[in-house]
Design brief:
Fumarylacetoacetate hydrolase, domain 2, globular, mainly beta, 2 domains, 4 helices, 238 residues, single chain, seven-stranded mixed beta sheet
Length: 238
């Protein structure tokens, strides 16, 4: 963005970006999710504080699950509260965006495969999670993975402040320094299980303070140096 407005781009961060000669007013722009992942690999119990509030044992190795690409939405978009759930929770997290084909990468070389970082809300139907005794359905509804507002390429992920704010009230407050497994360890571990592709996202886990949202609520995930991911909760329509 400059004095003439927001300048258009073509291409992607993964195959090259070109500037256009078109400019747009900020009021005319709607930000989409900053990438289109083939998968979102998420972490369970990767903050000790969250493990304690949920009475979960702290895992000895990363506990991973997958959210589908169809759950991904951008900032200012709507989180749809499904009729099949009576409790839908926010989970604010740091997201890691993969830059290149990543397989069997040691932790000391993981940074070479990271494009940057973003905000993620790992929305969860908590009652369904409890009923199913596993996490796939509860975390995979359409709109259950807000991502954005951007991919920040210059930030150091080691010690970033993170807040989740519901209707103006801070609900989660932590630092990425409290992760049980850091970003580079996660890239290494996950790439030893599955190939990570350009644009894939690792959602690094949530801290204590999770709680329910209701239709009409506004939820924000704020991460130092990255920005604010803001979404609106709405009822499912027929």
């Amino acid at each position: 963005m400059d004095s003439e407005g927001i300048r258009g781009l073509s291409g992607t961060p993964f195959d090259g970006i070109n500037l256009s000669n078109q400019y747009h007013r900020p009021s005319d722009i709607r930000l989409l999710a900053p990438c289109t992942p083939s998968k979102v690999v998420a972490l369970g119990v990767n903050y000790r504080s969250h493990g304690e509030e949920m009475s979960h044992r702290i895992p000895e190795e990363p506990l991973i699950f997958i959210k589908p690409s169809t759950a991904v939405i951008g900032t200012e978009a709507y989180i749809i509260y499904p009729e099949s759930s009576q409790r839908v929770d926010y989970e604010g997290e740091l997201g890691v965006v993969i830059k290149s084909h990543t397989r069997y990468v040691p932790a000391e070389k993981a940074a070479d495969h990271i494009l940057g970082y973003t905000c993620v809300n790992d929305v969860t139907a908590r009652d369904i999670q409890a009923r199913d005794k596993q996490w796939t359905r509860s975390k995979s509804f359409d709109t259950f993975c807000p991502v954005g507002p951007c991919i920040e390429t210059e930030v150091d992920p080691a010690d970033l402040s993170l807040e989740t704010v519901l209707n103006g009230e801070i609900k989660q407050q932590t630092s990425t320094s409290q992760l049980n497994f850091n970003v580079y360890e996660l890239v290494s571990f996950i790439s030893g299980v599955m190939t990570l592709l350009p644009g894939d996202i690792i959602a690094t886990g949530t801290a204590s303070g999770i709680g329910p949202m209701q239709p009409g609520d506004i939820v924000e995930v704020k991460i130092e140096g990255i920005g604010i991911l803001r979404n609106y909760v709405v009822k499912q329509e027929d």
